[in-house]
Amino acid sequence: MLYYITGGERSGKSSYAQNLALQLSNTPFYLATSRVWDDNHRQRIDRHIADRDQRWTSIEEEKELSKVVQNNSVVVIDCVTLWLTNFFVDTKNDIEKSLSQAKTEFDKLLKIDATIIIISNEIGMGVHATTEVGRKFTELQGWMNQHLAKHADKAILMVSGIPVEIKASK
């Protein structure tokens, strides 16, 4: 089962995803995709890990998500935006190459017998990016979000902390 949860910044996506995971499993996994950029960022990541209780197993993986998602598990992947950033930076801002690599990796997840709750951002709904690289990344995010939603069994748009179902279970 694939749940796709999207919305704006601070819309309640992560809280919703974590509560859903705990409804589905007593021992869910939290897969963080953020690259550790500096010591300050590491401290922020450590705070997020400390916020989750002992029921959670935390995993960090920058790109190859399919290598760490286990069969018969419930896993929250947080988040697509940071995950895509890793591809985007590594390809020197090449949208097509980043999108291809991300889709290939995501498609591997679809072959795993797990309940996956994947969180993304709707960055294209906000202010228009003022830089070329920002506009390119917004396009990349939008195309990847479409791919995720197409394959999702259920899609939720978070608006001001309220989940709005945009795609019902198959």
Task: Write a structural description.
This protein is α/β, with parallel strands linked by helices. The chain contains 5 helices and 7 strands; from the N terminus they run βαβαββααβαββ. A 7-stranded mixed sheet has the order 3-2-4-5-1-6-7, with helices on both faces. Strand 6 and strand 7 form a beta hairpin.
Strand and helix map with partners:
Blueprint: E1 2-7, H1 13-24, E2 29-32, H2 39-51, E3 57-60, E4 74-78, H3 80-90, H4 95-109, E5 115-119, H5 132-151, E6 154-159, E7 162-167
Parallel strand pairs: 1-5, 1-6, 2-3, 2-4, 4-5
Antiparallel strand pairs: 6-7
Short descriptors:
21% strand; alpha/beta; 170 residues
The helical percent reads: 40-55%
How many H/I helical runs?
5
Shape: globular
Biggest β-sheet strands, sense, barrel = 7 strands, mixed
- Please state the structural category: alpha/beta
If you average the pLDDT, what whole number results? 92
- Strand order across the biggest sheet? 3-2-4-5-1-6-7
> Regions with pLDDT < 50 over 5+ consecutive residues?
none
What amount of the residues lies in strands? 15-25%
Describe the structure concisely for a colleague.
With 170 residues, the protein is of the alpha/beta class. It has helices spanning 13-24, 39-51, 80-90, 95-109, 132-151, and strands spanning 2-7, 29-32, 57-60, 74-78, 115-119, 154-159, 162-167. The chain is built from 5 helices and 7 strands, in the order βαβαββααβαββ.
